[in-house]
Write a structure and sequence with these properties.
By secondary structure, the chain is an alpha+beta fold. The protein is 44% helix and 9% strand. The protein is built from ten helices and five strands. It has helices at 2-5, 12-20, 32-42, 92-100, 130-143, 147-160, 166-169, 179-191, 198-207, 210-223; strands at residues 28-29, 51-56, 62-66, 75-78, 87-89. It has a five-stranded antiparallel β-sheet with strand order 1-2-3-4-5. A hairpin with a 5-residue loop joins strand 2 and strand 3 (62-66). Helix 5 runs antiparallel to helix 6 and helix 8 (179-191) runs parallel beside helix 10.
């Protein structure tokens, strides 16, 4: 199966990293039959046009590699419960390093949110292309007509955004017409503990779309987490 990945112009270093990876519970290199099955499925939906599966937990969830487009080389997680193809790691090597460094984790949900490269509250270093990728994704979003693709472009833009870009590349999505995009924007305001959004989040507790209302409560709780007490009603 490893040889199959060479068809997608994956670098030799990344191929070698996969070759040396030992599959274990929750993180198994996908076999040829399942790869073909998933590729046949992906071909039915334009939203999957740029990704291929590389690892599976054998419970219908997959780590996928972007093999084309602005996010080429980056890794996302495809859950059977919820579609969110935002990048989680810059490359295969970084994903595998995290798996190897967390031997007691057996699925995606076992990782803490801070192990992922994206989104992150840390300063993003040694990734000069990141800003250019965001610009490219924003340009694609302006002309995209497919609603699922628009949603995933928005998710990826927000995930790649650094703290000092929140006003430009996360905050505007709070007013998005897509309920899930609005929800994710609100979640990330909480993730970044973005205090300037506090008054807006209080408003969104009652005025957001259904998913956004509860997301706003949780975001406020995170922003207020340095206080002695946290009340989801405030």
């Amino acid at each position: 199966m490893i040889e199959k990945f060479k068809e997608f112009n994956i670098s030799e270093d990344e191929i070698e990293k996969l070759k040396n990876f030992r599959s274990r519970d929750g993180f198994a290199i996908i076999d040829g039959n399942e790869f073909n099955k998933m590729q046949n499925y992906f071909e039915q939906f334009v939203v999957y046009k740029n990704i291929v599966p590389i690892l599976t937990d054998n419970s219908s969830n997959y780590w996928c590699l972007y093999v084309d487009g602005a996010l080429k080389g980056m890794v996302c997680y495809l859950s059977h419960d919820e579609l969110n193809l935002e990048p989680k790691f810059r490359n295969i090597s970084n994903l595998i390093d995290v798996i190897d460094n967390n031997p007691d984790v057996f699925d995606f949900d076992g990782f803490g949110e801070n192990v992922f490269e994206f989104p992150t509250t840390k300063k993003i270093v040694q990734f000069s292309e990141r800003s250019e990728i965001i610009v490219q994704l924003l340009a694609e979003l302006k002309i995209e007509k497919d609603e699922d693709c628009m949603q995933q472009l928005a998710f990826s833009i927000m995930a790649l955004s650094s703290n000092n870009e929140i006003e430009a590349t996360i905050y505007p999505f709070v007013d998005d017409e897509d309920m899930y995009v609005q929800e994710r924007a609100i979640e990330l305001l909480g993730f970044h503990k973005y205090k300037p959004a506090r008054e807006r989040l209080i408003e969104l507790k009652t005025r957001a779309m259904p998913n956004g209302k509860y997301a706003a409560k949780l975001a406020l709780a995170k922003i207020n987490s340095n206080n002695s007490s946290i009340d989801l009603e405030n």
